Amino acid sequence: MGKNKHEAELVKKALAVGAVYVKKRGFGEFEATDSHKLKVEYLYRALVEDKLIQPLAKQDINIPKMEHKLALWISRQLPRDHPLLADQ
After folding, report:
1. What's the CA gap between 2 and 87, in Å, rounded?
2. Residues 79, 84, 86, 88, Cα dihedral to 10°
3. What value does the mean pLDDT take over residues 5-16?
């Protein structure tokens, strides 16, 4: 799966869904003052911990690649006809 032109919106959706997930999972919750970078890294690590996404290689761990992983994760959770999945 290549980069989706809606990847930024998919990352926002992943963070919204992920916030609910980490809270229900007991990992804590996102605060309004948390940076985007912190939220991305926190959700990425929570999903890796629960084996819901495959971890990046150690040398590849950075925010843009974590965002891409989150976009891929949420794209698999959304229905096929979701507007963010159009024109991939």
Report:
1. 11
2. -110
3. 92
